[in-house]
Every structure is written in C-alpha cells, then in structure tokens.
Amino acid sequence: MEIKLRFCFFYVFYFCSFVTKTNLKIMYTEILRIIEGGLAKDSSKVYSYAKLLADKMNKDGEDKLSKMILKLIEKKEPANAVTMDMLLTAPVDNDSRMSIVDVELPSKEELNIVLEPFLQNKIHDFIKAVKHQNKLIGFGIDTSNTLLLYGNPGCGKTTVARYISEQTGLPLVIARFDAIVSSLLGNTGKNIRKIFDFANDKPCILFLDEFDAIAKARDDQHELGELKRVINSLLQNIDIFSKNNILIAATNHPELLDKAIWRRFNHVIEIGMPKENEVLNLINKFTDSFKNDFIDDKKKYEKLVKLFEGKSPSDIKTIINNAKTQAVIHGNGILTYDELLFEIFEFNNHGVVSFDKMIEFLNDNGISQTAIADKMNVSLRQVRNYLNKQS
Fold it and tell me: Taking a C-beta distance cutoff of 8 angstroms, is the pair 201, 171 a contact?
C-alpha cells in the first residue's frame, strides 16, 4: 500500500511539472485532496480525486496527461469502487447502530424539474459555480458552494438536490436526521461530525434535508443547552466543510433557523408553490405518454389548471397518479377529466367523501348528471333530486 501511495505522490508532482502555472491553480483543490488521501493512506480518496483531476485536465486540453493519470489508476481500483466504499463505510449512530447517511448515485436519466424561469436560472448558476469552482479559485475569488433551499413541503427541494447531483455527476450523501439526533444527546454532535468527515473524504454533495431539525435558533426557550451546543458544532463543521466542498440544505420551516445559519450559505433559493404556467407544465409532465380526454379540450384543461392551483408538485403528481391507477384497473387505460375531478375532490377532503358535496362539486365543474350517477353508483333521479334542492 505504501509503495502505491508513494507512486501517487511521485506522479502528482511529475504531472505538476508539465502543467502551466494557471492550470495548476485551477487544479490545486484536487491535488491537495490526493496528497491528503496519501498521507492518510486512504486509497479510495486518492483514486476518486485523481479521477476527478484527470477529467478536468481532459476538459482543459491536457488530454495526454489525463490519459497518463487514468492509466495509472485504472488497475488500482475496480469500477464503482468509490460508490461501494461509500456504501460500506457509511457512518452509524453508536447508540442505535442506524446508518446516519443514505448515498444516492446521480440519476442516469435526465431529470426534468418544473420551476419558474427565474428559479431555474438561479439553480443553473449554482451548478455553474460548482463546475467552475477551481476556475474561480484561480482568479482569486473566495467562494463556497453552499445552497439553502426553503419552502412548503412537496414543492421540489429534494428533487432540486437530485437534479444538481445529476448535472454535476456527483453522488448525493443525504443526512438522516431521524438517526442523527441520538437518544444520547452527547452523541448527536458526534454524529454530525461523522457525517461531515464522511462527505469530506470523497467527491460528493452533502445534502442536509429537514435542516431545521438540528439548526433551530439558539434563543429557542424550549431547547436544552446540549442542543444549543449541537448547533454550535454544526456551524463549525459547515465553516470547515464549505471551503472546498458542496453543501445543500433544505427546510420547510425557515423561520426556525438560527440567524447564523443563513450567513453560511452564499446561495439561498425559495422553492414556492407553482404558478399557473408551472401547473400547466406539471400536468403535461405527469400525464405524458398517457392517453387522456382533456389535453385537447381547452375548457376542461383550463378548469384543471385552476383546480390544481395552490397545490404542490408532489400533490399534483399524487392526484394524477391516483387517477391513472383508477383508469387502468377500472377503465380502458384512458385518463379522463371526470376521474381527475373525483381524485381532486377526495384529495381536498382528505378521503372523506360526502355524497351531497361530491355531486355538487362534479356538477359545478361540468360533469354530466348521467356520468355522476354512474361513477357514484346511484340513480340518475337521486342526483337530479339533490341538484334541484340546491337550486
């Protein structure tokens, strides 16, 4: 092992003698990480950052040197070794023995996020900053790749994190806060440190979902002193980690976050409820490749957009998927406007179906009395009698 690592050191300095001063500045983060891995006798870290260095050299036109690095390391580590190492060495809580992180590979299929153009531009700017971090360092720009996402549940914060993972090609290390907050409070701070150390050892994105679980304001009178010390530990870890790594945090409750937390993130994006155009795009996305009777009917389509307004992308997906299921198991595989209205009503009423209110809702949104009677398995006379009473 020591002989292999010595060779790694030799080749690092050998390659450095060939590259220009400007290119060396651009690559210095990877070189430092390779040296760190060598000193720690961590072959996986040496391999992963050497591979990253080779990729960047290839993009910068140093294809000859890139091939030399790849040739050197290709026999030293099997395919997917970094991923396997991440899965096998994932940290656990000492008390419960639960894993405190989940590791997700970048999606092989291109993710399609539906957000308003302004938000999409901000996310793409963050991705560009990640991809050009070494270039920014070369220009002497002191920056950190930290992103805080906040907004209502189901609006796509986790999807955005996965999209960034897919766009950068970096695995997502997701902190599991259900396991981080240990029954032994003293272990919570240790768990946080374990997570940051684990993510620091390899090219990845550390994703802190439900961030408010451990980042609450330190002036919260309901919190114990130990939890306040946990927040101090969290802040220190973020400061150290964010200098050379990628950190994304997400919360549904931004009002609970400690004031000092906000200053740790140089990119902050609110992921809000979808607006009319986004609702329209979401309907198209979730009904794509599924036969339906409303896309070409302007009146029905506009009604659906109005009925879906105020719902999160997750809610819209759930309603449409439920309607698709009904179309397959009870119908002919065609997603109908009528079925979507039934699912919208049930969703709005949390599954509690009122016979009278359902008839009224369907009638108000253009469903024929015959179709209402057929769907609700009642006589046409019952439907007419109820509607006549209302009028």
Answer: no
